[in-house]
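Bit of a strange request maybe. I'm writing a small parser for structure token strings and I need a real example to test against, not something I typed by hand. Could someone generate the tokens for this chain?
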Amino acid sequence: MNGFSFDTPGSTLVEWGGAARLGALLSGWFPARKLLIVTDGFLHRAGLLDAAKASLAAHGFSVSVFDDVVADPPEAVLMACVAQGRAAGADVVMGLGGGSSMDVAKLVAVMLVGEQPLAELYGIGKVTGRRLPLVQVPTTAGTGSEATNITILTTGETTKMGIVSHQLYADRVLLDAALTTGLPPVQTAATGIDAMVHAIEAYTSRHRKNPLSDLFAREALRLLSRHLVAACRDGQDRAAREGMLLGANFAGQAFSNSPVGAVHALAYPLGGHFHLPHGLTNALMLGPVLRHTMPAAAPLYAELADVVIGPSGDGVQARAAAFVAFMEELMDRSGAPRRLRDVDVPEESLPMLARDAMLQTRLLQNNPVAVDEAAALALYRQAF
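Reply from user aminoacidic:
Good idea to test on real output. This should exercise your parser:
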């Protein structure tokens, strides 16, 4: 066995309804009492924070809510959040929402006490020094951002860049699946498939693949494949929602330690140019990339088929093909959009998307099969 390391947040609490007693939880976790909550306007207006805010107030917390996070957050949103946190004198930060809110919260916790300019943080291992205490509370079962040390920001009109650093791991994670019950079926499907992409790409990554990531990826796929359709059909199904949220978290732990590849590389330009949700863009590109990667990844796909379908006496190629067919059929059953044309991506944009995907060198290097610009264009055309 090759040596490996595996990093993850400090502590994770799984508790249905736990958000309603966040005041008691945070009181036991940290002495800090000036909390900055990073979220989005929809969740705030919908009242999803109300019970948490009441609990926090009852336990003596001063709470400032930044609710201007948007999908694919630009640098300006991050800096506005930092400014609000400084004005409030925040000494603890909580991300409560989807991946974008949690991504912003990670960097805000760093920048509120650090002196590095944002431009110096991009890349791997560039963050120095400490950060404020950080808590993550996901409201979707998809990104797994609560379990990762990665933040993705939109840096120009359409370009995304990543910051990867150990300091971005949360101190505490709360998995309260009750927060996910209001997620509509299409978003449930897209975020769930996003989590499955994380597990699959972690399991097949060319770099840093390791036994612990494999363990988390397999269990993530087992949970997600078992519960996805049920959660889409009945958002109040507690067992399905809990299974999805735990599976997404496991997938996040897997890909944080064994990085993702071409599905994400091709998904990012779709989000940047057309402002499509990240989970949806991953779902749209998964099928074509699975087929493209088959020549190198067939033995690993066969192992994943044993997880989601069950053991079989068939050969590697047959089981690998069965896995790809299973994923395609599951996506069809979930109700998620399946073609780029279905989400108003124009065909004439595909060459531009292929060019932009080549900028994602950090991700493309992890894919089991190389993806050059011509291959990327072919994959976009398959997805169209």
